[in-house]
Write a structure and sequence with these properties.
This protein has one domain. It is an all-alpha fold and 252 residues long. The chain has 8 helices and 2 strands, in the order αααββααααα. A hairpin with a 4-residue loop joins strand 1 and strand 2. The protein starts with 6 loop residues before the first helix and ends with a helix. It comes from Paramicrobacterium humi.
Length: 252
Amino acid sequence: MNIPLDFAWLEATMMAAVRITAFLMIAPPFSYGGIPTRVKAMLGVGLSLAVGSAVAPGYQNLDTGAFIGSLVLQVVTGALLGFLVLICFSAVQAAGNLIDVFGGFQLAQAFDPQAMVNGAQFTRLFQMTALALLFASGGYQLIIAGIVGSFRVIPVDGVFALAAPAEMMVRAVGQMFLSAVQIAGPLVIVLFLADAGLGLITRVAPALNAFAMGFPLKIIITLLLVTSVYLALPGVVNALTGDASQLLRGVR
């Protein structure tokens, strides 16, 4: 019994599996610690089998040294693409962190080992909400489509210039901070004005000890106004998903 094997297809599929698995280990929502590593690896292998026929044409078999070097390059490529997606969705977490700082919740911060997030209540709430919205809205499919589309830009036997991804990372970090300020900006301004008002009251009537009342007052204001920010998260996550998908297709 003779079973022919296409070694070019096998090698190309293996390299695609390495890139996709490295991507899934870092990119949200798949990077969440509650998803077992075995499941991520199985998903990476399954996706690589689906794209194997698309990445194999034109692929030439490599010798052992070149093959190992190419595998390392695929790990770096997948990790870099996953980090770009992580930067995009860190804007939601950063917005929650701003609300925690200005709302007085930062003293109750704790480390979440599943999400690998160190923050207070709204930091973790916004991060968990973003993950839930990615799964509920089907946004994870766009992220998967982005990593699959990256094989057209960076073939498994190709290389990319480091200058372009580095420039995109710098631009993505700047956009992350801008998005975080845009998400939490209105509430942060209100809390800042509350601090300024309490400072003026303390100057006018020092005996009132207005800052002692400031902590419960700011917490009440935060809880009353954060609903408007929270209701805007679906649109924010949708926009960030589109940005992440474009970043994955734009790395050259």
